[in-house]
Amino acid sequence: MPEASVLTIRASGGRRGSPGKRALLDAGVPMTGWMPRVEALRALGASTIYPHWTAWDGLPLSVLEAMALDVVVAASDIGPNRELLGPRQVCLRAPDRPENA
User: Fold this and answer.
1) CB 3.0-4.6 Å disulfide test: which of 10, 13, 59, 75 passes with 81?
2) Can you list the alpha helix ranges (DSSP code H) found in 1-101?
3) Per-residue pLDDT for 7 more than 60?
4) Model pTM?
5) How far is CA 79 from the centre of its chain?
């Protein structure tokens, strides 16, 4: 019999009143809020995948940290993420976002 696996999803927060945050809360996803750096890195290192969805970011340090910990990154399709992740990684484009955002 295959070993059972558990999927745990956590979110750090998001903009107050944002539809995405509301949808996560409605789905029962716990919101951790800000965590001490050591605790956040421990949780990130124990992860299989790090989703990084944002409309803009100058240099997403959390993406760099996930990469340094060998955690798979699924990121929004913005310039800095494309630059960091390169052609072999996946950037996800929101259907309502312009092609060249």
Assistant:
1) 75
2) 19-26, 37-45, 61-68, 79-85
3) no
4) 0.68
5) 16
